[in-house]
Amino acid sequence: MSSREQWSSRQGFILATIGAAVGLGNIWRFSYVAGENGGAAFLFLYLLCVLLVGLPIVIAELALGRRAQGDAVAAFEEAGDGSVWRYAGWIGVFGAIAILSYYAVIAGWALKYFVGAATGALWTTAAEGYGSYFKTFIANTGEPIAWHAAMLAAAVYVVAGGVRKGIEVVNRWLMPILAMIIIALALFALSLPGSGAGVRFLFSPDWSVLAKPEVYVAALGQAFFSLGVGMAVFLTYGSYMPRNFRLPTSAVAIAVGDALFAIVAGVAIFPAVFALGIDPTAGPELAFITLPQVFLQMPGGALAGAVFFFLLSAAALTSMVSLLEVPVAMAVRRLKCQRWKATGLIGAIILVLGIPSALSFGVLAHIKIGRHGILDAIDAGVSNFLLPITAILIALYVGWRLDKAIALSESELGEGKLGVCWHWLLRALVPMAIVAILLQSASVL
Ligand code: TRP
Predict the structure, then answer these.
(1) Maximum CA pair distance of the chain?
(2) Which residues pair with 369 in a beta bridge?
(3) pLDDT by residue for the chain (445 residues), tens digit each?
(4) Is residue 78 in a domain?
(5) Does the beta carbon of 110 sit less than 6 angstroms from any atom of ligand 1?
(6) Which of 39, 139, 264, 301 could form a disulfide with 201 if both were Cys (CB 3.0 to 4.6 A apart)?
(7) Does residue 245 lie in a domain region?
(8) What is the C-alpha to C-alpha distance for residues 402 and 396, in angstroms, rounded to an integer?
(9) Under 8 Å between Cβ of 19 and 253
């Protein structure tokens, strides 16, 4: 146990957890999901989900991990004495691998666009339109796999470097830069003539969309994905947290940082989309088809575009690193193998597992799971089922199975109002909200 690494500072730990939370989810996914679900009213629901469902789970994960001083599987083994609870840890490990397999593919698209924007190649293809540019690219066989492999190699490199020298260092550098970039892009978007419509879309609610049950499913799914709860990422990062870091303040910093990032990303994206009279409900293609068009048409857009796709790639990298650390931490302990070997091996497995997703718009496009292609099916399955299910397990475990006094002291919330409130959220509101949403999303299948 004494050989386990720890974060070198509280600031480094918080930046690493915010790095885990802030990713494609805040920019690519948030913008299209908010666009599809009516903007401001969705934003309100999403924030409510972050506060009442996401934040209590973040606290529970951090507390479980720090208590166990071990990986996802160890955390449940330790207090679960061989009971079924230990499968919760395994679901986290396999879930993290499943997410990475397709997440790295999308991150690869972002990297391709960044390289294209920086070299100028992206701006010369405008004639054919970005719709066909994007579709031709993802229908390729070799190219999406190559970019997927490049992103994975970067994540493997960081994680192999260790908790302090790899993960912490990269997040310390990247996260402040990313925060400055997104603020600069938002200010730039606000300066465009006609940006007001986008601001109104994001901040002035049309409550009528709340009548649609899908909006609630989308808001909770987005809160889970964007925070990154449910896959033992915070549990694993929490296990490297020394005793003297204040746990509740760290959890609040993660939730607030993540939500702010999504909102500012919305301010960067929607005003620009509206200023050019483009439809915000484009779906998953918003970042890759609509936005390049926006950049191409606006003054200074080539630079803004390159900076935007750098942001998207780098934010994806820090999230990939957090997901990769979950199986790596488990393998290092269980198989007693060296960190760099474990990281390389798991990276190689994810590379192979991601290939069907990378090809799912090309040679494998004919394969459908339900109504979805392979990548979309894994994304829907993970966000709408796997994440909520592991989140319920964590909530029930900390709420009911773990001794109440231990839960309250490990979370540092104590016996006061705050602690009792958190404990009841985990016991009742969180599981009920998640079950309601699961039933709802099962019924729309
Ligand atoms: N939160 C990240 C994003 O917004 C993705 C992510 C990282 C994640 N770790 C996770 C998603 C754990 C689900 C579970 O892009």
Answers:
(1) 65
(2) 372
(3) 446 899 999 999 999 999 999 999 999 999 989 998 999 999 999 999 999 999 999 999 999 999 999 999 988 886 556 677 878 889 999 999 999 999 999 999 999 999 999 999 999 876 678 888 999 999 999 999 999 999 999 999 999 999 999 999 999 999 999 999 999 999 988 988 888 999 999 999 999 999 998 899 889 989 999 999 989 999 999 999 999 999 999 999 999 999 999 999 999 999 988 887 888 887 777 889 888 988 888 888 999 999 999 999 999 999 999 999 999 999 999 989 899 999 999 999 999 999 999 999 999 999 998 888 999 889 888 887 888 888 999 999 999 999 999 999 999 999 999 999 999 999 999 999 999 888 887 776 5
(4) yes
(5) no
(6) 39
(7) yes
(8) 9
(9) no
CATH number (domain holding residue 352): 1.10.4160.10
CB 32 within 8 A of CB 226: no
Chain centroid to CA 170: 17
* Closest residue by CA, ligand 1 atom 10: 228
- Residue 388 placed within a domain: no
The C-alpha atoms of residue 364 and residue 139 are separated, in whole angstroms, by 9
Whole-number Å distance between alpha carbons of 34 and 144 = 27
Pocket probe for ligand 1: among 322, 326, 386, the residue whose CB has the most ligand atoms within 8 Å is 322
**Position 263 in a domain:** yes
Tokens of 257: 């940082």
Smallest CA-to-CA distance from 100 within 112, 92, 90 is with 92
Q: Please, where are the H alpha helices in 140-212?
A: 142-160, 169-190, 196-203
Retrieve residue 81's tokens.
């004495």
Write out the residue range of the structural domain in which residue 253 sits.
Answer: 10-368
Closest atom of ligand 1 to 382 CA is 13
- DSSP letters along 275-325, please? HTT--TT-GGGIIIIIHHHHHHHSTTHHHHHHHHHHHHHHHHHHHHHHHHH
Q: Which of 103, 319, 321, 378 to mutate to test the pocket of ligand 1 (most atoms within 8 A of CB)?
A: 319
| 345 C-alpha to ligand 1 centroid (Å) | 22
Helix, coil or strand: residue 372? strand
Non-local (6+) Cβ contacts of 95 within 8 A are 230, 231, 232, 382, 386, 387, 390
Ligand 1 binding pocket includes 233 (Cβ within 6 Å): yes
Tell me the best of 231, 321, 328 to mutate to test the pocket of ligand 1, counting ligand atoms within 8 Å of each CB and taking the most.
231
Question: In terms of Cα–Cα distance, which of 65, 86, 360, 74 is closest to 242?
Answer: 65
Q: How many domains does the chain have?
A: 1
In the beta sheet, which residues pair with residue 372? 369
